[in-house]
Amino acid sequence: MEGILLLVAILLPAVGSLMLVFLPWLNQSRKDRNIFVAAIMLLECLVVLFVAFDAQRTIVLFEMTKQLPIALRSDGTSRVFSAVMVLMWTISGFYSFEYMKHEQNEKTYYAFYLMTLAALMALSLSGTMVTMYLFFEFMTLISVPLVLHSRTKEAVAAGIKYLIYSVAGATMGLLGIFMLTPNISSPYFVEGGSLLVDNLNISTTGMQVIVLITIIGFATKAGMFPMHGWLPTAHPVAPAPASAVLSGVITKAGVLAIFRMIFYVIGPDFIRGNWVQWTLLGCAAITVFMGSILALREKVLKKRLAYSSVSQVSYVLSGLFILDTMALNGALLQIVFHALTKDALFLCAGTIIYKTGVTRVDEMQSIGKSMPWTMWMFTICAISLVGIPPLGGFIAKWYIAEGALISGTEVYSWLIPIVLLVSAMLTAGYLLPPAVSAFFGGMGQSEPVNQFKEKLDPAPIMTVPVLILTLAIAVLGIFPGQMIEAFTALANSLF
After folding, report:
1. What's 55's DSSP letter?
2. In terms of residue numbers, what domain contains 399?
3. In the structure, how many helices (H) and strands (E) does the chain have?
4. Contact present, 343 and 317 (Cβ < 8 Å)
5. Which residues pair with 57 in a beta bridge?
6. Distance between CA atoms of 45 and 38, rounded to whole angstroms?
7. Is the Cα torsion angle 88, 336, 83, 308 positive or negative in sign?
8. Model confidence at 444, in pLDDT bands (50, 70, 90)?
9. Residue 452 in contact with residue 363, Cβ under 8 Å?
10. What are φ and ψ of residue 228, in 5° steps?
11. CA–CA distance, 26 with 282 (Å, rounded to integer)
12. Torsions phi, psi for 28 (to 5 deg)
């Protein structure tokens, strides 16, 4: 049956989640539960791989009305996002089998972890605006327990803040869907957009306002100014593997919604060269710079990484808003490399917390002598995030900057590359000194501090997932040709 793989990709982790909740024998021991969760995630990777190599499919689940079908679709965009999401989810999931030993409520954690994966797969494979919105909201609601997991006062406050921001942003997106639905030629996503520009039922200016509100609303999940406040509060309080996917994957849900709205509904020509594009680029540029400054000032390691995500995800948004094929190619590369890098960095932070209890950057002096594997991987990922060749972060940022320079977007043609360069220097300022201090002790002190005497690198189940991510950053950075070809083909199909 055509399209059955699309349903399986969504139902497999969802059914796995429900089985964890309602089948007691799956939770008789940690080992049994971990084997079951691992099997579900590995099978999900296999299903998504089959979807990626299958022909383009569309399956209509049901129709609310003729103009509001609930449908799934596999295309170039869904394949990129679903592949990135499921791989990051699986790697962080394997890491969590050891990390979650010192956490409580493991059954609840894995149940919501798998259900959130199902929601993300449904979001990636959505074929219409309404379908996307429904699963976008479901993904928000089902991921809140990952933030609330520790159930401390701080976690509850962060979860409430995450929920309020997310619902507010999604409501702004829903307003756009209400207004756009009567003004599109097809309820299904159409490459290049389906907006009836010459036959709008409101003024062009009115529609531009709606478009701006819609994109800013969905950008809430991506942490873009002025709707960024939830991210540095929510990410640090979650368990480290949840922080990793919140930063590396959940933020990409906002990027995906914006990607669909601009390139499959509104059309890039409707906002190119007018005040909507300038406003969006301005918000993205502010976010890139602001996130880097706040990260530089932050002393708590996980919160520093969260502020870094505010900045780095807006690199992606800058690439989208430039509306150029090269910049869009860079944005797609940044989606991949940011997910790899930030997942690895949060998992390294989790390892440090798990083995030592250290949570602050200024407490990491000489820790690299006791945790060499962890800190070497942290350092390599930090170098990639700065954008130093030949690691993956460099090629993504190069394409975004090059796309901006040739795009003809007036002042932003040179402002975006300058902001990216300044942000890269700030990134070096907040990530590289902790790495140096970890290996060489307190800088500026007469004698290095070494409070960590014994070897503290964790078991392979925690080290290997981070090592896989780190190797992927290096290998894909040195040999990016296949990805660039695939992303170029996707970008060319959207303009």
Report:
1. P
2. 272-495
3. 19, 2
4. no
5. 74
6. 11
7. positive
8. very low
9. no
10. -100, -10
11. 51
12. -65, -30
Closest C-alpha among 288, 298, 242, 295 to residue 116: 242
Q: What are the C-alpha distances in Å from 280 to residues 67, 217, 229, 304, 415?
A: 29, 12, 18, 25, 14
Burial class (CB in 10 A: 0-12, 13-18, 19+), 251: buried
Supply φ then ψ for residue 183, to 5 degrees.
-115, 20
The sign of the dihedral angle between the CA atoms of 262, 265, 267, 272 is: negative
Give the CA dihedral 278, 279, 281, 286, nearest 10 degrees. Answer: 130
Please indicate, yes or no, if residue 201 is contained in any of the structural domains: no
The helix or strand, by DSSP H or E, that contains position 329, with its residue range, turns out to be helix 325-356
Whole-number Å distance between alpha carbons of 145 and 142:
7
CA angle 34, 36, 39 (to 5 degrees): 105
Beta strands in 201-332 (DSSP E): none
Q: Quick check: is 368 in a domain? A: yes
> Token pair of 492, please?
């060319």
**How do residues 420-439 score in pLDDT, each as one tens digit?**
999 999 999 999 999 998 88
pLDDT tens, residue by residue, 12-59: 999 999 999 998 888 888 999 999 999 999 999 999 999 888 777 888
Which of 224, 76, 67, 239 lies closest to 146 in space, CA to CA?
239
Q: Is residue 414 part of a domain?
A: yes
- Of the CA atoms within 13 Å of residue 199, those in its CB half-sphere come to 8
Which secondary structure element, helix H or strand E, spans residue 60, and what is its range?
strand 57-63
What are the structure tokens assigned to 174, written together?
């829903």
Hey, what are 303's tokens?
A: 């919160």
In a domain, 192, yes or no: no
Helix (H, G, I), strand (E, B) or coil at 63: strand
The answer to whether 490 and 77 are in contact (CB under 8 A) is: yes
Q: Which sign, positive or negative, has the C-alpha torsion 334, 339, 340, 341?
A: positive
Segment 121-129 mean pLDDT: 96
| 3 state SS of 366 | coil
- Angle subtended by helix axes 106-124 and 251-260, to nearest 10: 20
CA 4 to chain centre: 27
If you search the block for the tokens 């350092």, which residue do you land on? 379
Residue at 317: amino acid letter = L
Task: Find the helix packing angle between 76-99 and 325-356, rounded to 10°.
Answer: 10
Q: How far apart are CA 193 and CA 190, in angstroms?
A: 5
**What's the total number of domains in the chain?**
1
Which is nearest to 184 in space by CA: 157, 161, 162, 214?
214
